[in-house]
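Appendix C: a fully annotated inverse folding record. The material below is reproduced so that readers can follow the format used throughout the book. The structure is listed first as tokens, followed by the designed sequence.
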């Protein structure tokens, strides 16, 4: 851990020497990017709100199929009159954020770009496409493979009881699983930034893979909606693959590889 902190401090010091903006200019730039991101988020929210009923139908599809498979009433219920309103607002906000994510990520890139070297700035298109693509891949994996199986297991496990699934509780569970998997699929992006700044390397990631496996299974246990080990392993398997991909990413973008290339061509 101390080694990582030292590397991070060194990376920040090196980039502080780059010609850039003053603290006030950085704060002004941050304010500008936050305002632009907020505008894109609002636009995405209203676009998603116009198709809220279609989005709600897509969101309810797994629980409806699971309830029908067990011969139960497929309709969700609510206990508070404001629950349906909150439901549509929440899904519109989340889906709006996903729609606006490419534009928001571009604002993030514009903010951090002054602290990057010229050869590092060429990663903008891979960064944006990989970030959005990995999140959607995680959400797709959860929606089509993990979540339906988990719901079928849970409802079947409580077959002796009559379920009354509320809108608010179902929304919370859906967001936890789908967004949780979407975020965990962003592991290669996190490693990309840590490696490009020289904070972690492929060798360090490989050496500490046993700790990574432990952390991955802990995260899987937290976000898995069912208590069985099989579901936890299903969650953990793609994250382990992503960790191995992250090792390759770290190898490709780490500054030491560029230095070796320069020495070889010198």
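Designed amino acids, in order:
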């Amino acid at each position: 851990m101390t080694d990582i902190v030292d590397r991070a401090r060194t990376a920040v010091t090196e980039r502080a020497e780059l010609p850039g903006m003053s603290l006030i200019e950085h704060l002004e730039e941050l304010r500008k990017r936050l305002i632009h991101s907020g505008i894109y988020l609002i636009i995405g929210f209203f676009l998603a709100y116009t198709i809220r009923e279609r989005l709600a139908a897509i969101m309810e599809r797994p629980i409806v199929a699971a309830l029908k498979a067990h011969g139960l009433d497929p309709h969700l219920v609510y206990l508070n009159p404001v629950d349906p309103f909150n439901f549509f607002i929440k899904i519109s906000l989340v889906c709006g954020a996903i729609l606006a994510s490419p534009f928001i990520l571009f604002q993030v890139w514009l903010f951090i770009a002054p602290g990057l070297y010229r050869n590092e700035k060429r990663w903008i298109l891979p960064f944006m496409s990989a970030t959005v693509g990995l999140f959607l891949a995680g959400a797709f994996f959860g929606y089509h493979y993990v979540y339906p199986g988990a719901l079928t297991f849970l409802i079947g496990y409580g077959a002796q009881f009559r379920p009354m699934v509320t809108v608010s509780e179902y929304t919370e569970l859906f967001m936890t699983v789908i967004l949780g998997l979407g975020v965990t699929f962003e592991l290669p992006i996190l490693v990309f930034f840590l490696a490009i700044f020289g904070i972690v390397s492929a060798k360090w990631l490989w050496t500490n893979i046993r700790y990574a496996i432990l952390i991955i299974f802990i995260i899987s246990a937290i976000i898995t909606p069912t208590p069985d080990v099989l579901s936890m392993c299903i969650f953990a398997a793609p994250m382990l693959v992503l960790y191995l991909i992250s090792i390759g990413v770290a190898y490709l973008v780490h500054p030491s590889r560029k230095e070796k290339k320069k020495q070889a061509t010198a």
